[in-house]
Amino acid sequence: MHHRNWLDRASDWLNVTLLLLVSAAMIVPFLYIFSVSFSSMEEFLRKDFIFWPDRWVTDAYTYILANDKFVKSILITVLITVLGTLLNLAFTSTMAYGLSKKFYGQRIFLFMVLFTFLFSAGIIPTYLIVKETGLLNSIWSLIIPVLISPWNLIVFSQFFKSIPEELNEAALIDGASEFTVFNKIILPLSKPALATFGLFYAVSHWNSYFTGILYISNPNLWPIQVLLRQIVVVNDTSTLQVEQMVNVQPPPAETIQMAAILLATIPILIVYPFLQKHFAKGVMIGSVKG
């Protein structure tokens, strides 16, 4: 028994050590980004690695937030994320509810969903469809093509199947319509699923940049991730040149990049605590009950 307890304690210490290492691997880069963004030009040029700034300055943030293009890009991304997530949940939940019911031709519709999940048309055909429908250089090009995720649809459908059918039947007997049943009974019981898939959709919209590069050629309509790519990957901080600061020496490009990354990351991080309660319940959505 003593030998077994020693093994248990050793296993606990090993798990704690591994978790601390994984946590450090995620926290240290974020802390570096945070510290560099608040560092002065002198300190940045003097030190190879800044773990904590000696003197806190907000020059990079002042420079970025004074730029209308960055602020507009953030607002465009917020609009795409909020509007896109609401439409994603509306279309995914209604179609999933329909597929959770038995009706003539159900397997055909299910096959169509599975086919799109397994086989994709590719970038060029999708681009041509977006172009021919007149969605280029529009925020709708970042929302409509990804309106329903086949995987989320299938899992959502399984979740609806787990809700007792007696609730539906009792409401229908009392004279409620299918829409009333769905709106007044099913959706309130689906808060964990809505929170979970809502978070998935929101993060996907917020972090999406490839479709923005593909469909948005107008810089004034760039979402924040496309602008970040221009600043960080292409290293073009002149994108953020502020007219009233033309004669003022800008902060180092690296501090501008780090500040831009932080400003683009914080909003989506703030959303998670509000959904955590429902998200914790929703992680097992679609699982088989024993």
Automatic annotation (TrEMBL):
InterPro entries noted in UniProt: MetI-like (IPR000515), MetI-like_sf (IPR035906)
Entry keyword Transmembrane helix: yes
GO biological process: transmembrane transport
Location(s) in or outside the cell: Cell membrane
Membrane topology according to the record: Multi-pass membrane protein
Keywords in alphabetical order: Cell membrane, Membrane, Transmembrane, Transmembrane helix, Transport
GO cellular component assignments: plasma membrane
CDD domains: TM_PBP2
Family matches, as PROSITE patterns: ABC_TM1
Keyword S-adenosyl-L-methionine among UniProt keywords: no
Annotated transmembrane regions: 12-34, 74-96, 108-129, 135-156, 193-216, 255-275
ABC transmembrane type-1 domain sequence ranges: 74-275
Protein family (similarity comment): Belongs to the binding-protein-dependent transport system permease family.
Protein name from the UniProt record: ABC transporter permease protein YtcP
Species whose genome carries this gene: Paenibacillus nasutitermitis
Primary gene name: ytcP
